[in-house]
Amino acid sequence: MPIVDAQPTPFEFDLDTTALLVIDMQRDFLLPGGFGESLGNDVAQLRRTIGPMKRLLEAWRATSMPIIHTREGHKPDLSDCPPAKLKRGPMIGQPGTFGKILIQGEYGHDIIDELQPLENEVVVDKPGKGAFYATDLEEVLTKDGIKRLVVTGVTTEVCVHTTVREANDRGYECLVLADCVGSYFPEFQQAGLRMIAAQGGIFGWVAESPALIEEIAR
Ligand code: TIU
Question: Does this entry carry the keyword Hydrolase (predicted)?
Fold first, then answer.
């Protein structure tokens, strides 16, 4: 079995039971002038993941392992957006630079050009921060016999963390790639990664993408 150098211990995986999760690499979060930046966030902190992610996707696509992309967003009538979320995210559904913010079908809701999914890759639309809540992700993984997840995307302490915690509780082993996840806040990036691997890997493992690419390219 391939083994990747990781924290807190090496991460062992096999090509038949591992999937790549790409969380919310959407224009609304990553594009300059978009929703994320309009909230005062530094999108460069997220955009540094694009190069490593492109290289990872290229290597992963050369294997038979599945790739699953997620997008956070809501139906145009906001019927799947809890009032409590809307109250603290009042821009959701409002017109932004790239269409109505976080609304399915809008330009800003879709994945950035550099990382557009291929036709055979699954895209899971999710109304929450976690990728399991109110989605068919668990069904998709079970059907493919997936037991391990390599997790990438944005943001580290919000949608990546929520998803890793949900996955860990469901029995999946998660490897988070430090250079392929991003937070608007450098201190949350650091702490978020440390939280995953602390206490003997309380939620999972953390590694750098070149170490994984080397293993899957063997
Ligand atoms: N995808 C995701 O993390 N959604 C967020 O709202 N993240 C923030 O950091 N705001």
Answer: yes
